[in-house]
Amino acid sequence: MGTPFRSVAAYAADGTGALGIGIVSEIFGFDRRDRGSPGFDFAVCGDRPGPVTTDSGLKMLIEHGLDRLARADLVLVTSWDAFELQPPPEALAALREAHTRGAIVAGFCTGTYVLAAAGLLDGRRATTHWRWADAMAERFPAVTVLPEVLYVDEGRVVTGAGGAAGVDMCLYLLRREYGAAVANAIARDMVVPPHRDGGQAQFVSAPVPADCDDERLSGVLAWARANLDRPLTVETLATRALMSQRSFARRFSAATGSTPHAWVLSQRLHRAEELLETADLSIEEVARRVGFGTAATLREQFVRRRGVPPRAYRKTFAASAQDAGVAQGVAAGLGPDAEAVWLGADLDPGEQVPVGR
Questions:
Q1: Rounded Cα gap, residues 353 and 200, in angstroms
Q2: In sequence order, what are the beta bridge partners of 105?
Q3: pTM score > 0.70 for this model?
Q4: How many CA within 13 A on the CB side of residue 192?
Q5: What is the DSSP secondary-structure string of 14-61?
Q6: Residue 90 near residue 66 (C-beta atoms within 8 A)
Q7: For the HTH araC/xylS-type domain, which residue ranges apply (predicted)?
Q8: How far is it, in rounded angstroms, from Cα 79 to Cα 55?
Q9: Burial (CB count within 10 angstroms: exposed 0-12, middle 13-18, buried 19+), residue 62
Q10: Looking at the DSSP assignment, which residues form a beta bridge with residue 18?
Q11: What is d(CA 94, CA 334) in angstroms, rounded to the nearest whole number?
Q12: How far, CA to CA in Å, does 304 sit from each of 41, 149, 269, 308, 310?
């Protein structure tokens, strides 16, 4: 794994969405180094320095031009107000230059249109605001548009759905590059869930909601998250919910967008990440605590879902996780051993994996 991004630039043309700029400014522009989170060299860039007006009429003074955008480690495009028009060729060239140089280029909402116009989505999967998904697919036939997901990871090109899905996409990027504890700490500071479903299944790193509208299921989810070391079969969960297995599976899928098997596996993987980052436990003990039973089973699932073995993951993320977790715990009045609890999934929609022991 290479060095995580430090320099972050957001593109803001005239008419840009105020919400999108606000999201990326809060996540990457707010200095949280005193709380153990990484600091970013953040800038909002325009076609040229000067004033722009957002979609809500707010005036912004842009201090940087496209040269700053072209040399950033992470480039973000949050919206494109004139969806029917072609973005400026200079902006498209700057995006291509950044990507060619090795930067991560990410867009959400109608900002994904700009990435498509730059040719960065050709041959790739992408998402955008559901309202514009059909139009984007028609205009850019070389792009596989997935309107039903919150974000799609294609390596150095990442796209997110509309509006607040920008939060999900940015937190996902933090988690991917810096680890779960850093993303959790920033999400906690913003008072938002680190992962969510939002009614849309994910293509990668699928968030699952902390709770659902079904009160009975919410209790079962909370119990399962607190008892990952137990055999959590569909029969066990259905019995606890006082339902038949068929009724439970149907209501579970309707409430979470996932199957019980996939959800439990994702919880175990994410809890394993948390322990690998923050706890001085053996791999065997981590495997036992999250319900995989043996280090070999944990390693098999971890390599399959994360692409690296548990020891390599720990080596990459443990230091930054400790800094962020301890600082956040102290700020919250907790002891340094306090554990953050967070949720998520990492499966294709509908995938079923047996996880009961």
A1: 20
A2: 75, 157
A3: no
A4: 22
A5: TT--HHHHHHHIIIIIS--GGGTPPP-EEEEE-SSSEEEE-TTS-EEE
A6: yes
A7: 218-316
A8: 10
A9: buried
A10: none
A11: 45
A12: 34, 21, 11, 8, 11
Q: Which residues lie closer than 8 Å to 65 by C-beta, 6 or more apart?
A: 45, 46, 47, 48, 49
What is the Cβ-side half-sphere exposure of residue 153, based on CA atoms within 13 angstroms? 20
Structure tokens at 232: 């959590």
Dig out the tokens for 183 from the structure: 């993303």
Q: Which two tokens stand for residue 230?
A: 């137990």
- Spatial distance between the Cα atoms of 252 and 324, rounded to a whole number of angstroms: 33
Neighbours of 110 (CB within 10 A): 24
Please give the chain's pLDDT, 357 residues, in tens: 567 899 999 999 999 999 999 999 999 999 999 888 899 999 999 999 999 999 999 999 999 999 999 899 999 999 987 777 899 999 999 999 999 999 999 999 999 999 999 999 999 999 999 889 999 999 999 999 998 888 999 999 999 998 889 999 999 999 889 988 888 889 888 888 776 643 333 333 333 344 455 677 888 998 999 999 999 999 999 999 999 999 999 888 887 777 899 889 988 998 998 898 888 899 999 999 999 999 999 999 888 877 788 988 888 776 554 444 433 332 333 333 322 222 233 333 333 333 332
Structure tokens at 247: 């009724």
DSSP per-residue string spanning 208-267 = --S--S-HHHHHHHHHHHHTTTS---HHHHHHHTTS-HHHHHHHHHHHHSS-HHHHHHHH
Integer-rounded Cα Rg, in Å, for the chain is 21
Picking from 350, 349, 348, 330, the residue whose alpha carbon sits closest to that of residue 338 is 330
How far is Cα 231 from Cα 304, in angstroms, rounded to an integer?
A: 21
